[in-house]
Sequence to fold (396 residues):
Amino acid sequence: MSASSLSTGSAGSTTPGGLVPRDAGDLLAILRDGIPRTRAQLAEITGLARSTVASRIDALMHARLIMPAPDAASSGGRPPARVVFNAGARIILAIDLGATHGVIAIADLAGNVLASESAPLTIADGPEPVLGWALHTAKRLVKASGRPRSELAGVGIGLPGPVQHSTGMPINPPIMPGWDRFDVPSYVRRTFDVPVLVDNDVNVLALGEHAVSWPLEDDLLFVKVSTGIGLGIIAGGRLQRGAAGSAGDLGHVRVPFTRDTPRHGDEDADLEALASGPAIARYIAERGTPATSSADVLALARAGNADAVAGIRQAGRDLGEVLATCVNLFNPSVVVVGGSIARAGEQLLAGVREVVYRQSTPLATQHLQIVAASAGETGGVLGAAIMVAQHLLDPA
Fold:
C-alpha cells in the first residue's frame, strides 16, 4: 500500500480519507481554524443555500468532526446556534526519527500534541529495530491515552533522508544503511491498520512550523542544521516536494568559497561538509578540543567554548552563501532555521543573516524575516501529525 493510499468509508458517503462526508470538505476547511460560526455565517462565506449548509453540517456532526460551540448548546430540539471544529474527534500517531534520536507522539486532528515520548536511537541500526522501538512505544502511548484503536485516524512519519512520498520508501538515504526502498508503510500497517504517510524530516518540520508559527505566510523556507542539512519549501501555502520528492536537498549543494570562508583544500565543498554538526565538530577538534558530533558542538557552545562559537558562526556564513541564492530564487517572506545546531544560540542565525542580507537583492530582503524555529523537540511530530490531518481533511 502506498504512503498516500487511504482506507475508504461507506461507498459514496465519504471522501477517499474515510473521515469527511462527501461534499463537506470545503465547509470543514473553513471551520478548521477553530472559530465558531453560525449556519448563516457559513452560508454567507460559501455562497451555498442555507438548506445545503444545514445538511452538510448535519453530516459533519454525525461524523463528529464538528460540534456545538461550548456557549451554543442546543435547547428545545433546535440546532445549535454555532458550531466549531472538533479536533479531538480522532487521534493521530506521529513518529519523528532522527539520526540519533526518536520522538513518538499522540496528537489530535489540529496537530496538538497530547502525549509524547523521546529516546536516543541509532538510525543506522536498520528499519526493523528502529521501527520496532517506535511501534512498541506508540502502542504504549495509545493505550495510556485511553482512546480506542478505532479512533486512530492515521500515522505520520518523518525520516532523516530522501523519501519517495508516493510510496513512503526511503531512497538511497546516506546515513540510513539498510533502509533503501524499505516499505515503511506496509511494515507499520502490520501494527496499526490505518493510512501511513512518510516524508523526510525537514518537510515534516516545515509543515509544523508553518502551521503553528506562520499560518498567514504563504512562502516560507525551513532549514534544518544537525547531523545533516536540509530544506523544506512552502510556496503558495503548500509544501513543495518536487517531481520525485527530492526538493530541498540543500546539504549536497556545492559552496563556492568567498573571502569569508576559509579553504579546506578544495575550491569548494558540499554545504554539509562545511556547516553540519559533524563538520563543526571537526573544526573544533582540529583546534584541540575533543568533539565528534552535533551533541558535542551543542554542549561546548552552551559552555561558552570559543572554538565552538566561532565554528557555528562560520557555519552560519557558509549556510548563508547557499540561502542567499534560495532567497533570490524563491523570494520567501520567512526563513526558519532549526535543528540541534540552531539551538546552540544566536551565532548560527547571526552568520546566516550576515551573508543573506548582504548578498540577496534588496527587494527580496526588504521584508524578509530570518528566525529560529520555535517548535523545539516536538516540531517533527507536530509536523507529522499535520501532514496526516491535511491529507485526511483537506478538500483536495
